[in-house]
Amino acid sequence: MFDYCKRCKVIHLENEICPYHLKQLKKDPSILAEAANFATVAGQYHLTTSQMLDGVAQRINNLAGTNLRFEGSHQLARDIQVFKQLNVDAYSKSGVFANAQSAKDYLDQATKGQLDLLIKKLNGTGQEVDWLRWKQGQLGSFFEKYQLLGEKMTNAPGVDGVTINRFTKEEITKTTIKAAQSSKGLGTNVSDVLKALKNGTLKPDDTLVGIDGTEGALKKALARNIEKAVQNGDVDYANTLKQAQKQLNVQELNNTGSVKQSTERLKDKIAAGQAHTTVTLQEVSKKAFQGAVIGAAIGLTVSGISHYLKYKNGDISEKEALAGVGQDTLKGALMGGTMASVTLFLPAGPLGFIAGMAIGIYLNKTLTNILDEVFGKGAFAEILHASGYVYGMSMNLEESIRRIEKDESRVHFNSNRVRAKVKKIEQNFDEFEHLMKGKR
């Protein structure tokens, strides 16, 4: 890949850093950690909004001739987060989700009322976790911290998450998160939002996250209820709803179909005794055996650092930087197979679990040589360690795909040769039998 540099007015090769960027790195070594953060965010966004890694692992399974149930890193990590959140929030007192077996026992013995409540909690908690992962994959996570209530604070009625300024620790906004498996459930969600606004637990300038169709349904409901409040002389409530019309930030995430699919999958996992709240050694071994993706090491490359510095200097937009670095991370992404059992990059260690997304940093040889020259041999490693990163051996995804394709071609070629030989042998037999019949 060639890249025209506006500063140098020359074309830089893919593995060449602009001299201006090199000076920036030498002057401020912390930029390396910033670039790693940017690569992680871009990688999270790319991995959670695409199925590319999942597709590669599926191809490995197909090549091996297996028909095992496949589950990729995004889905595995996301579902574990849902069960963990249920344990610290909705079922924190009862301990239903303290472990996979207790969750299974609860489901097996649940009354109809308990089952209905569980499905409702699976709907809502799945949406909450999707919101958290979605926000953590945005560039705003540099400056903002997102937290689901129930982890360290009491869950207020109508409020499910908060956004906090990382530097001042001040709360920026509250978020209410809603999910539904039907249009009827969507109507219930909107009614709950109106109640929260009336009770004051949700402010008119807070945030509402709901499924597709939430914004339109809420606009209609606000208009109807403003008119009712005015007719009933409830001036304060009418004013609150009018403020919500103008200021309430509505974001749509998922739809009735995806919510239903998620809940059914989570329920099946509970029934199978797989409602784990942490990444267990058994899960790692099982997924590695299946050739599925468990974690990923984000590739920090020359191109990735250059893209980040261009964004930092205002030379390219956030969207351009995310696209460039997001695609670049795939070149250094760790894929599954037996490697997954020894290279599980998660924030709390190999068997721990916090955010459910890889933060391993993979440095290729070209970048290592450049950084050795900039910081001195091995100094860049200390910068990443000080920033809380780990980095290690990683399988190059592109090379792996090439090998798979090469192997598939070889298998196809050999199969054709075998078929040709079989056909030749059959022809020889036919000729031999014909010859023998002639002699008789």
Q: Low-confidence runs (pLDDT<50, min 5 residues)?
A: 48-73, 284-296, 333-359, 392-401
Distance separating the two termini: 73 Å
Strand content: 5-15%
> What's the helical proportion of residues?
55-70%
Rg over alpha carbons: 27 Å
How would you characterize this protein structure?
The chain is of the alpha/beta class. The chain folds into 3 domains: 19-67 and 292-386, no CATH class; 74-263, no CATH class; 402-440. The chain has helices at residues 19-27, 30-49, 52-63, 73-88, 100-109, 112-136, 183-199, 214-231, 235-247, 256-271, 281-290, 302-312, 318-329, 365-375, 379-386, 397-439; strands spanning 3-5, 10-12, 144-148, 161-165, 171-177, 207-210, 249-252, 297-300, 360-363. The longest helix is centred in the C-terminal third of the chain and has 43 residues, at 397-439.
